[in-house]
């Protein structure tokens, strides 16, 4: 079975690697996946966008904002 993941929503804080390292690996393996970072502070916003994330959401956010962001990523 070939799994195609279009959009990934992730934080920087992960159990084994940080989100930036994970995003770099994901983009290297499957560069068509779109990554949206969601984080309480914007300390990694610039670097996350430079490495290939398509959007950055500041937590907390409303579900409406998440849906708008996902729709924007799908359309572009």
From TrEMBL:
Domain Response regulatory: 1-74
Ranges in a coiled coil: none
Any one of the GO BP annotations: phosphorelay signal transduction system
InterPro entries listed in its UniProt record: CheY-like_superfamily (IPR011006), Sig_transdc_resp-reg_receiver (IPR001789)
One matching Pfam family: Response_reg
PROSITE patterns in alphabetical order: RESPONSE_REGULATORY (PS50110)
Stated name of the protein: Response regulatory domain-containing protein
Organism lineage: unclassified sequences, metagenomes, ecological metagenomes
């Amino acid at each position: 079975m070939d799994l195609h993941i279009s959009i990934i929503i992730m934080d920087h804080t992960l159990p084994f690697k940080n989100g930036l390292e994970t995003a770099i690996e994901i983009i290297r393996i499957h560069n068509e996946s779109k990554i949206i970072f969601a984080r309480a502070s914007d300390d990694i916003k610039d670097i996350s966008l430079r490495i290939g994330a398509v959007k950055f959401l500041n937590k907390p956010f409303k579900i409406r904002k998440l849906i708008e962001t996902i729709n924007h990523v799908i359309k572009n």
